[in-house]
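#struct-help
A.M.: can someone run this one for me? Single chain, 176 residues.
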Amino acid sequence: MTIGRGLRIVLDRLYVAGGMIAAGFLIAILVIIVLQMAARWTGQVFPGSTDYAGYCMAAASFFAFAHALNRGAHIRVSLLLSKLGRYRRWAEIWCFAVASALACYFAYYAIRAVYWSYKLNDISQGQDATPIWIPQLAMAAGTVLLALALVDNLVRILFFGAHGIKSDTVEQSHGE
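D.P.: on it. Structure tokens below:
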């Protein structure tokens, strides 16, 4: 197995793992909602349940970004790109370059936010009083994963002529 092929397998598995983690957080939201309903029915209180559900929703969203990108689930400008003909590759390079730069910028500041929240012992404003760096950690990890996926696709289109997005819904339905 070559280094490039091994790296491709690792990256693809990493993106799938992000999707699986996102699915786990969606299940956690379901569990929190069920526990909140049970608490209401029994006259108990589940303080901070809405905050925990919000943290899980943010974590699910950020961890799913890279997986969704590589599955063609993000909104892209495929309709416009398909009309560019021979200039399509250059437009995709430009789009991936801008998106990669923005995602790397966001990832850098997401990591800094986690660091400073931890260092300052920042606590959430809700009833849960959770150290805010804990939910921010999921955002930072998901953002790093998205930045990695965008850079990966940029490198693939630069050196191999095609990105790694599995399907474009517009292009598939257009061809049928």
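A.M.: thanks! DSSP finds six helices and no strands in the chain.
D.P.: also worth noting: Residues 3-175 form one domain.
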